[in-house]
Design a protein that fits this description.
It is a single chain. The chain has 13 helices and eleven strands. It has 326 residues and is an alpha/beta fold. The chain has a single domain, classed as Alpha-Beta Barrel (TIM Barrel). Strand 8, helix 7 and strand 9 form a beta-alpha-beta unit. It is globular. It starts with 11 loop residues before the first strand and ends with a helix. The N terminus is likely disordered.
Amino acid sequence: MTAAGGGGARAAIGVAVEAEAIPLAEAVERARVVEALGFDSVWLGQQIGERDAAVVLAAYATATSRVDLAAGILPIYARHPSDLAQMAATLDELSGGRLVLGLGLGHQLTVEWMLGVPMGRPVTAMREYLTIVRAMLAEGKASLSGERFSAHTSYGPPRRGRLRIMLGALRPRMLRLAAELADGVVLWLCAPSYVRDQVMPVLSSARAELGLGMDGFEVVSIVPVCVSPDPREDRDRFRRTIASFGRLPYYRRMLEASGFGGQLASGEFDDETIDQLGGVGDAEHAAGLFAAYREAGCTLVVGIPVHSAQLDHERFVRTMEVLARG
């Protein structure tokens, strides 16, 4: 991963190799393809009811040798912070120090209804969780009695110490927490204009208040991509994807702040919105969108193949080849 921090360095390119809709062996092969094409990182998130992301990343680690392996985003309420730190240290050791850890809150639907776990105050809970994880990884032990998360435990095996941790953040309070305690932020379904006008000013201001610059701080956007010779069906499916995320409060507030409130209310998303939120269509549009994210301030743009590019291996490879050239 390459941190540009607005200083003009090349923004890195990553790929999310999701495994839920394809055989695991094929997902591992895709990780090999991504590395062979020269991408900087392979990403994998965790969703309820899918394969365990840590185990899949371990498979990616053994199949690759160079790319960073990013666990992003892992929902904090699915694992106790001491358990997650153990997993992260082990996976980082297995991969030869290539792990990047991405943490996120999750949503009330998945946390409280599906898992039956009460959510705490968002920023307080994330601060406590991150404090425990950081201490376990850096010092091999943690002792914290928090409002939502507590731990009094240790980790004895070898560990790297300073492991990069990113926070999934969309709104100012979580962005400020990331600026204070994390190594970067991970954004999803944010238009380049939202990154430029909402995210970057908050991060820059928060880092400046702490006496820190943006050098070394990552701004990561995960961007849906699908290069298709007949993109109509993929674009229609992407419309439905946006609508489904728009039902979740965190994303709804972000999309409303992006100027999409009227379309959210009607459930109808026009072509301009589709083009701002994803590279679903032809190769030229996908490449241009990635450039727009870089110009907005992102240090790393991660393409996540969606719809037919996720389900069809040849279309996955074609999409990857287009991104690699861009």
